[in-house]
Amino acid sequence: MMQRLLNNLRFKLLQARGLTELPVLPSTVAPSSRTLDEREMYPHLFPNYHPEPVPEITVGSIILWVLLKLAVLIPAMWFLMERYKWHQYWFAALGILWLVVVYPAFMQYQQFKAQTHVLEKNALCAKCRHFDETGHFCKLLDEHVSVQHTPCGGERWEARQSFGSDDDETFS
Ligand code: SF4
């Protein structure tokens, strides 16, 4: 009861300072290794905050961009090498592939892992067999999952096969 009153008081103070209407930072401004911010850790203090359930990056989007970039770069480099006889600069072509394709994909994957880490705070979906970690969505309902959004509300939850195994820390 007392805790609830204190929470209400803190929320009113934050509301008076206009801090409950904080905008969601766009992905270009947000740090690459995103961690839980106050709005996600204390949802009762920020009832107006609804993080976007659609993930910014998925394994599928990373692979798609790699394929698209390769589809453009390889023919372009092939053409330039044949046209201008630049065969001796093959190492430069490898460098371009690294800079344009491999390194951005690696960085995006790091960002994806950070997103997954945040999503693990939604313990219900993270321990459910219908949760797809590579796309951050529920396979049963075909909906994206977020820290605060459980599409089925817990009604369709089914334990993963690894649930209860030695490496599972749910009850530890
Ligand atoms: S069935 Fe429910 S608990 Fe399981 S992943 Fe889908 S939304 Fe989450």
Short description:
The chain is 46% helix and 3% strand. With 172 residues, the protein is mainly α.
Write the layout of secondary structure elements.
Blueprint lengths: L1 H15 L21 H4 L17 H26 L5 H30 L3 H4 L4 E2 L4 E2 L4 E2 L28
Antiparallel strand pairs: 1-2, 2-3
Helix pairs in contact: 3-4
The structure holds iron/sulfur cluster.
Structure description:
- The chain has 172 residues and is mostly helical.
- It folds into 2 domains: 1-49, no CATH class; 54-162.
- 46% of the residues lie in helices and 3% in strands.
- The protein is built from 5 helices and 3 strands.
- Strands 1-2-3 form a 3-stranded antiparallel β-sheet, with no helix packed on it.
- A hairpin with a 4-residue loop joins strand 2 (137-138) and strand 3.
- Helix 3 packs antiparallel against helix 4 (90-119).
- The longest helix has 30 residues, at 90-119.
- Mean pLDDT is 78; it is low at 29-34.
- Iron/sulfur cluster (SF4) is lined by residues 124-125, 128, 130-131, 138, 140-141, 145, 150-152, 156-157.
- The site of iron/sulfur cluster has 14 residues, from helix 5.
State the end-to-end CA separation: 29 Å
* Approximate shape: elongated
Number of helices: 5
| Helical percentage | 40-55%
Q: Which assembly state applies to the chains in this document?
A: single chain
Estimate nothing, just give the exact number of structural domains: 2
Radius of gyration over all CA atoms, rounded: 22 Å
H/E series: HHHHHEEE
Q: Mean pLDDT score, rounded? A: 78
Structural class: mainly alpha
Bound molecules: iron/sulfur cluster
Share in β-strands: under 5%
Strand order of the largest sheet: 1-2-3
> Main β-sheet, in a few words?
3 strands, antiparallel
Unreliable runs: 29-34
Q: What's the β-strand tally?
A: 3
